[in-house]
Amino acid sequence: MTLTRLVYASRSEFVETDRRSEIERIIASARRLNTQNDVTGFFMVTPTGFAQVLEGRPANVAETYGRIVVDPRHRDIRLLSQEPIAERRFPRWSMGLAEQDETTMFIFGLYRVTPETDLAEQPADALVDLAGELASRPA
Ligand SMILES: Cc1cc2nc3c(=O)[nH]c(=O)nc-3n(C[C@H](O)[C@H](O)[C@H](O)COP(=O)(O)O)c2cc1C
Question: Using CA atoms, how far apart are residues 97 and 99, in angstroms rounded to an integer?
Answer without folding.
Answer: 7
